[in-house]
Design a protein that fits this description.
Elements (H helix, E strand, L loop, with lengths): L24 H4 L2 H5 L11 H30 L3 H25 L4 H8 L11 H10 L14 H11 L4 H11 L6 H4 L11 H12 L5 H32 L11 H8 L5 H9 L1
Length: 281
């Protein structure tokens, strides 16, 4: 055994131990704000889990949006390689969001029922960052601006995104700049609306997949986009199964059809040609 006099002192090896007037870990990360942002409305045990699950998801979405926007700008400048690194990070962020559902699924129907009524009409359906991710990736349903009409600042962000080419749009434009015969109808479409499957574009991707060595950067771009959508679909699927496990087929707190609504979202394809091309190879 050792006495207190023999206890290890990190300062002996140079560790900073005093922070009067200096930046500390808590200061840099604004932890007083972050850790003070959980305000349960009830004294039920599981409400804190529910709040932290959704708050941390929103933080990961903030990072995903930064990476998507930066990668989109790079692709528009034909700087594909650095964009791939950023998009790989987005896929891992979606994986992190997937893993979070495993924690939330430890909450039973009885646990959730104890505080659900106190949520009022608030719902994940109203997450403007999730909506912005969907818009960035190309699922552009303008009807979904309506839940944010009470916040002009948020509506402005979402509307501004609809005026930009989606991630898939800039990818397809890169193919055209690379000399591939992308249909004009795809290049000149209304970017404020969702992309619809185009047979001609599918054949452009087929050309790339049939000769990956000639079109290696575009081949890698295709697989990176598939990776993004794969993880995004898993995120949606895990959302559906978690909701069904916790509330069954009740309507969502925000008024949606709950599981029925979420299942419809599973059918949405972001990059349809990249999935269909596999059938013709």
């Amino acid at each position: 055994m050792t006495s207190d006099d023999d206890a290890y002192d990190p300062a002996s090896e140079g560790a900073q131990m005093r922070f009067d007037g200096r930046m500390s870990y808590t200061d840099y990360l604004q932890l007083d704000l972050v850790l003070g942002a959980q305000k349960p409305l009830t004294d039920t045990h599981d409400e804190l889990l529910f709040i932290i699950q959704h708050q941390t998801s929103e933080l990961w979405m903030t990072l995903a949006l930064k990476e998507i926007n930066a990668s989109r700008d790079l692709i528009a400048r034909d700087a594909l390689q650095p964009a791939f690194k950023m998009l790989a990070r987005v896929a891992r962020i979606f994986e992190q969001l997937n893993n979070a559902w495993d924690v939330l699924r430890t909450m039973t129907p009885s646990d959730y029922t104890a505080f659900r009524d106190d949520l009022g009409q608030s719902s994940g359906f109203q997450s403007w960052q999730y909506r912005l991710i969907e818009f960035c990736l190309g699922n552009r349903n303008q009807a979904l601006l309506q839940p944010h009409a009470h916040r002009p600042d948020i509506t402005e962000k979402l509307t501004a995104e609809l005026a930009k080419p989606s991630l898939y749009d800039v990818a397809v434009q890169a193919l055209a700049r690379g000399g591939l015969d992308v249909p004009q109808s795809v290049l000149t479409r209304d970017i404020a609306r969702p992309h619809s499957y185009d047979e001609g574009l599918m054949h452009v991707w087929e050309q790339i997949y049939r000769d990956p060595h000639q079109y290696w950067s575009f081949y890698e771009l295709a697989e990176t986009l598939v990776d993004i959508e794969d993880y995004f679909r898993r995120w949606r699927f895990n959302h559906v199964t978690t909701v069904e496990r916790v509330i069954g087929f009740k309507r969502g707190t925000g008024g949606t059809g709950g599981v029925d609504y979420l299942r419809r979202m599973l059918a949405v394809e972001l990059f349809p040609e990249l999935w269909r091309v596999r059938t013709v190879l």
